[in-house]
Request: fold
Amino acid sequence: MGRRAAAPHRPPSRPLRFRRDAPAPPGRALSVLEALAILGAGTAAGAINTVVGSGTLITFPVLLALGYAPVTANVSNTIGLVPGSLSGAIGYRRELAGQRPRAIRLGVGSTLGGVTGAVALLVLPAAAFKTIVPVFIALALVLVLAQPTLSARLRARRPPDAREGAATRLAVFGTGVYGGYFGAAQGILLLGILGVALPDDLQRVNALKNVLAMLVNLVAGIVFALVADVAWDVAALLAVGATGGGVLGARFGRRLPPAVLRAVIVAVGTVAIVRLL
Reply:
């Protein structure tokens, strides 16, 4: 009798895994657990961004862990967090009362900075920003801690109706560039700058920060949507989660006393520095 031909060897099936530095295959379906992880990360980021900032330090690592390439993760994250910034700004609408002219003036710098940073992300390596970002955050935390003393001294030297100066507008533009490029802790940088430069309490400054950060993410997201590789399913899940998180963040964050809010900012900022080092 002839011998049967041996059946071809088939390796045991294994769950599909992706390298952190490799782009996720186009069009692959997210599992339920992956979708829930992205949704939960978006919710947490939306709440943190509304109260303080640096929600990207939650969402970005999650997307990398799921196998998305860094640039794809960054651009999808930027687009997905825009609705959360909007819902947070709406939640702070009482604190925004009377700040429309100021928001328009500073919003111009944020918008131009966001476009500049988005273009920079597509053409420049990340190493230049990665090295100096922790220094920026540390400086912002110092400004947040010193804000009551510095603001009191500056308030004594300037008229109550004085507008923000050119240095403040330039700093807001620079923060917009960083926000369009990466965005993690953009809110903390804005709080540090605006808290010292503006004759207002921290909650009203935080409300303005939400509007400026939203503008940066919005214009950067438009640039990315036109020319970059966006994972739209990821962006949609982040948007849903961030919208709910923004509402929650505004509901609880605006009730925090200035001293408690300042402590939260410093705590989150310190974690951000450790994560980025």
Notes: The chain has a mean pLDDT of 81. Residues 127-157 form the longest helix (31 residues). DSSP finds ten helices and no strands in the chain. Residues 32-276 form one domain.
